[in-house]
């Protein structure tokens, strides 16, 4: 037997061609397809593959990383981990990948900018409509009160607002 034939035979025995196909489409695969592949089911009828525990571990890690967080439940992941343990695989690598993914998810959530609730934005802009109605009609004292009210709503200090009121009132 030459090297090429021995290599082809090892590929067929382990079902590497089938594992490769499932790994390539892991994001679209179902848990049932992954389990069937782990158990040696192939596309060729009558042929059963014997993937090594490392092959199965690689398949599960690729499947886990290809799926969105909300698409894979903890129960499904625990079932796949149990199958790997039954096959004799060291699941330390999978546990590490889980932790890294969780830390990455938390880091991404922490780095997202905080968005203020829309109700606060409505309160902030309310001062400008009051300003417009008071400035367009009314005397100088009304304008001064309006400016003070607008400045206090937009975050200026009260002392600055009072100074502005007195300046506006003295100019009018």
Please give a structural write-up.
The protein has 172 residues and is an all-alpha fold. The protein folds into 2 domains: 3-111, no CATH class; 118-171, no CATH class. 72% of the residues lie in helices and 0% in strands. The chain has 9 helices and no strands. Helix 4 (53-66) packs antiparallel against helix 5 (74-87). The radius of gyration is 33 Å and the shape is elongated. The model is unreliable at 150-159 (pLDDT under 50).
Share of helical residues = over 70%
Proportion of residues in β-strands: under 5%
Number of helical regions: 9
Secondary-structure-based class equals: mainly alpha
The major pleated sheet works out as: none
Which blocks of ≥5 consecutive residues have pLDDT under 50? 150-159
The count of β-strands is: 0
Distance between the termini: 106 Å
Shape: elongated
- Rounded Rg: 33 Å
H and E order: HHHHHHHHH
On the 0-100 scale, what is the average pLDDT?
Answer: 74
Q: Tell me the count of domains.
A: 2
Write the layout of secondary structure elements.
Layout (H helix, E strand, L loop, with lengths): L2 H12 L1 H9 L6 H8 L14 H14 L7 H14 L4 H20 L6 H19 L3 H14 L4 H14 L1
Helix pairs in contact: 2-4, 4-5, 4-6, 7-8, 8-9
